[in-house]
Amino acid sequence: MSSGSVSEPPACCATWQRTALMIAARHGQDDVVARALETSCSQPQLDVVDEQGNTALMIAAREGHQKVVEALVKAGADLAVRNGQGRSAAELAATEEIRAVIRKGEAQAEAILRTILAMGKEESAAASLPTGDFQIPKELLAMAGGMDMPSFAKESPY
């Protein structure tokens, strides 16, 4: 082994790092992905990487499964993650249509971030409001309207 080269991970690593979500994404099983997102998939699970640094989103994009990509983007998958080769899901996308879905998600995330940062500038005005009177700006609600929130989050009083 020469200096600076990377050795292959042990065979067992690939086994424990592949999640059910990754397997469903690889095979384009959008119904399985949707069910996983509804019932058991938390944000950390959504962005787990395999032995090559690929997330379920990257796998679905690479394999050309647009419905799975749409579901993962809508669920809030991290679109900025780069794999072991330094490539993002958009760069791995098999089609321009899939790349467009990811780019649209990136634009929505950027718009939400800009709105949140703008809210921070108005922090002094918000600090004078009585506790419990804070309202989410209409712009942020409109942007988040396209995102799929689990029903328990919609019903939460917090």
From TrEMBL:
The keyword Repeat applies. InterPro entries: Ankyrin_rpt, Ankyrin_rpt-contain_sf. ANK repeats lie at residues 52-84. Transmembrane segments: none annotated. Keywords: ANK repeat, Repeat. PROSITE patterns: ANK_REP_REGION, ANK_REPEAT. This is Uncharacterized protein. The lineage of its organism: Eukaryota, Sar, Alveolata, Dinophyceae, Suessiales.
